[in-house]
Design goal:
single chain; 89 residues; mainly alpha
């Protein structure tokens, strides 16, 4: 599982230089969890990690460069970018 997260985190960091590794990893994990939860709630049979990775990859490509803006405009998610101790690439 860690391999999937690492690949997606790396992709997200390429798309958005405003995110630290920790923040990018958190976003990837949230996207993954959201996809799996939504899929399960819809009553669909789990298609495996490859399908989840494909969906999360699509989201990262489409929205990754704007995540820092989204979090800044939504107080519920603002804490995701509010840690000055993070290590940036």
């Amino acid at each position: 599982m860690n391999d999937y997260y690492e690949r997606l985190t790396s992709l997200l960091m390429q798309k958005n230089a405003n995110l630290s590794y920790g923040r990018a990893r958190t976003w990837v994990e949230l996207f993954w969890e959201d996809f799996e939860t939504t899929y399960a709630k819809a009553g669909r049979e789990y298609q495996g990690k490859a399908v989840a990775e494909k969906v999360v990859r699509t989201w990262v490509i489409q929205y990754g460069d704007k995540l820092h803006e989204f979090a800044a405009l939504n107080p519920k998610y603002a804490h995701m970018l509010n840690d000055e101790d993070d290590i940036y690439h």
